[in-house]
Every structure is written in structure tokens, then in C-alpha cells.
Design goal:
Structural class: mainly beta
Radius of gyration: 35 Å
Helix content: under 10%
Number of helices: 0
Number of strands: 17
Strand content: 25-35%
């Protein structure tokens, strides 16, 4: 063997050659960074429950969103505050249920948190306000100049057809004319409620009545937080 013939020499040819190595393919996986905080659609959720609602009744579902992927976007819910023992919260769905009957005078102010499973975990919060229906809207007064029962006035709502059933959302005391809410009202769903009042006397044999339209306009409350168009 001649000296100086190094690796790659082809015997009898005087040529040095090298084998081509195959190209390599490198796969790069971009991992999601937990950089989005869970966010509820509203900052404050209002709900109402009647005092005779049975245990286990659904109250409200509070759901948040997280733009992260995988475990960074998987949310678990928790609840705290005075009276939290009255309700149960599904940690996966955010569904709130009653654990026992409520008192008619009870008011509850609870904080619900949605926490992702990223490292480190991020969380967002919302306020749940539970107030029973019965909020006084106002009082109507009608007069009748007749004497005795012919001048005694009673009040009611005209129960309109399927096109407008706003009267179902309110209660009017037949004697005093005081109007109160019968359900929880949400301005974001319907800002104005249209009612038709009926005032009728106790005359015999035929009572007289008169009607008056009434519009109830709901005031806006600060229940939505500012949202950036693009994340920082």
C-alpha cells in the first residue's frame, strides 16, 4: 500500500471519492405558550331564583373562553363568597345549581373564577349576583268619580297575544297598582318592555274599564369589561 492514500481512495483508479450522505429532515414543533388569560363574556352576571325552587335546580351557566391550546386552554371553575355553600358549581362546565331552598330575603354576591391548566396557570373572574324577583318598578293610580263599589278601581295587565308577552315578566297588585318584576330582566336581551294597563271599576251589572299603554325601559348597568381588539 502506498503511503498517503487516505480515506475515500478508489484502488486502481487514482481517484478519491466520498459517499453522499442522504439529506436530513428536521421537524420543528412550536409549543403553545400560556399567554391568554381566561375571559368571561360579562364582568357581572345577574340571576334570580324563586324561593320555592327545589334543590338541584339549574340557576345559570357561567362560561369563559381561553384562546390558548391544549392544557393551556382547558378551564376549571371555582366559586367563593358568602353564601357559596347554598350553590354547587360544576368545575368543568360552570353550571350553577341550588343546594337548598332560598330565603325570600336572601341576596348573594359570589365570585366565580375560571383557571386554565397552563404553567403557570392564569385565571379570570366574574361576579354572580343573585337577587330574587320582586323589584318594584312603579305604581299606577286611576280615579273613578262614581260612588261606592262603582268607584272602586282595580288594576291588571291586558294579556296580549303571542306577539307580545311582556306582561308575563311583571306583576301588578290589583288593589294598590304597584308593579314589580316577576322574573330577572336583562337589558342586553330586551331593553324595553311594552305593557298595557287596565283599570276597571266594580260597577254592576257591567263594570267599566280603561286601558293605558306603559313602556318600561331598563337602565344599563356596568356589567361588561373593556376588551382590546388585539391582544397586547
Amino acid at each position: 500500500m502506498r503511503a498517503g492514500r487516505g480515506p475515500g481512495y478508489r484502488p486502481g483508479t487514482g481517484i478519491y471519492g466520498f459517499k453522499r450522505r442522504p439529506d436530513s429532515i428536521v421537524l420543528v414543533t412550536v409549543l403553545d405558550v400560556n399567554d391568554f388569560r381566561p375571559r368571561f363574556a360579562q364582568r357581572i352576571f345577574n340571576t334570580s331564583v324563586f324561593e320555592n325552587e327545589p334543590s338541584g335546580s339549574s340557576v345559570i351557566t357561567l362560561s369563559a373562553t381561553d384562546l390558548d391550546e391544549g392544557e393551556n386552554g382547558r378551564l376549571l371553575y371555582s366559586m367563593r363568597g358568602a353564601g357559596a355553600d347554598v350553590f354547587s358549581l360544576n368545575v368543568d362546565t360552570g353550571l350553577v345549581r341550588l343546594l337548598r331552598l332560598l330565603q325570600s330575603s336572601g341576596h348573594y354576591n359570589l365570585t366565580v373564577s375560571a383557571t386554565d391548566q397552563g404553567i403557570p396557570p392564569l385565571s379570570g373572574t366574574a361576579i354572580l349576583l343573585e337577587r330574587p324577583p320582586g323589584l318594584e318598578v312603579g305604581r299606577v293610580i286611576a280615579t273613578d268619580v262614581d260612588d261606592g263599589v262603582n268607584g272602586e278601581v282595580r288594576y291588571a295587565f291586558l294579556q296580549t297575544g303571542a306577539g307580545n308577552r311582556d306582561w308575563e315578566n311583571f306583576y301588578i297588585d290589583a288593589l294598590s297598582g304597584v308593579i314589580t318584576t316577576a322574573v330577572r330582566l336583562d337589558r342586553e336581551k330586551q331593553a324595553t318592555q311594552s305593557l298595557i294597563l287596565v283599570a276597571y271599576d266594580q260597577g254592576q251589572p257591567v263594570p267599566y274599564e280603561t286601558t293605558q299603554p306603559l313602556q318600561v325601559t331598563l337602565l344599563d348597568i356596568d356589567d361588561n369589561e373593556p376588551v382590546f381588539l388585539k391582544p397586547p
